[in-house]
Hints:
By secondary structure, the protein is mainly alpha-helical.
Amino acid sequence: MCYSGIINIKSKEFDGKNDKMIEIKKKFYAKAEQAAAEIKDLLKTNGQTPVEMVTVSQLYQGMRGITSIVSEVSLLDPLEGIKFRGYTIPELREKLPKADQGSEPLPEGLFYLMLIGELPTQEDVKVISEQLASRSEIPEHVYKTIDALPMHAHPMTQFVTGIMALQTESKFAKAYGAGINKKEYWDPIFEDAVDLIAKVPYIAAYVYNRKYRNGAPLNSDKSLDWAANFAQMLGYSDPDFLKLMRLYLTIHADHEGGNVSAHTVHLVGSALSDPYLSFAAGMNGLAGPLHGLANQEVVKWIFEMQEKLGTDLPTKEQIVQYTKDTLAAGKVVPGYGHGVLRRTDPRFLAQMEFGKEYMPDDHMVQTVWNIFEAVPDVLGATGKIKNPWPNVDAHSGALLVHFGMKEYEFYTVLFGVSRALGVMANMCWSRALGFPLERPKSITTNGIKEWLAAGAEQGAI
Ligand code: NMX
Ligand code: MLT
């Protein structure tokens, strides 16, 4: 398989139109065309340069530490945390455009940054917000499909079911069926990506209202920004909750290409499954407790601790003992540890800053901070946990509980709505760069033994 890296602009799509979204699309096309040429060049000169050695241990360790995916939209530094096109979380909070009188970035702006590779202007973000609002129509059969599930179905199950039902709308699937030229794949993928981001908050809010608000109607307001409209559809109008939603949907958007949800979307998309199929697959991965479901597990863990101890503000000594009991029971301490990070997650710190500004006296939030002081030493003392520090999920739930959103089973859906931004931007890039089917090689333990017996050092497995 060799990298072709050739894309075509569809002139009939662009010519004679003066639509502002088409300007953004043209900009994306120009960036992708340039990047494809650079990659082609890079491969010509360095295609055979080894990247790194893979050890036998790594084969059994979930591929930890093996650099094997190219994702242009974000990069995770083990110490500094996530960088979106080079910008850290504190930089994004400072530099991305904000809503009027808002203090937190508009997540639409992060989508633009991931897609185009440049910070957007306020006007760019307005164009994206308006585009998302204009593409948010949901066909009736989507809601009916969700309604076919029993009410006790987990919100993530209902969310993914809705996304699968929405696949009927895929422009890429239709174009592929009609025989589209492979150089033009990126175009309907781009359209699907923007459509999907526009529609997922509606599906998420429908699930929330169905399960927790007696089927309250989606009170959407298309003049609002993406996050504020989402908050409103969930039934929240407190201006501080809108700020939280903008922060939440920004910081959860991506975490480089190797995390379970982003990697799954990338893998499934590489089979040319359309964005709806790929995103639904990624969301099934996000629904696992070692990944995105950890945010619900954290709040569940804290509620259970509070109930067991009969207090809503356990002491640090009580938290230490509860943590030790959790480990002794053979369970993980949710919200702590990470496959790549080796310091406190800057996404945790951003939420902590938010908490200190808006709710410093909230006992649930203070408990999260007390856990932060108590737990790392206990985890560190085990001697085996590589990162005893908190990740994003250790904090997010407590902020939601403060505003009254106590239905913790819904939290992973919020994570998923945000993750749509990163994985869809990445999917646009993957198709524009013409990345091939992802298909790594596997091996059996017998195969490894035979290779070792034959003198492993003589060559690759
Ligand atoms: N509590 C208890 N044990 C842990 C924890 C934890 N928080 N973190 C790691 N360990 C254990 C891990 O299970 C493994 O044990 P064993 O050797 O018995 O299999 C050992 O420590 C070494 O694991 P690491 O190499 O430090 O971590 P790994 O990269 O394998 O796993 C996580 C990363 C995130 C899966 C792991 O830290 C974990 O299970 N954390 C709790 C769940 C969580 O917060 N997940 C959310 C991650 C962020 N997200 O949103 O996706
Ligand atoms: C994420 O945001 O995807 C998580 O922190 C998990 C990861 O990066 O592996």
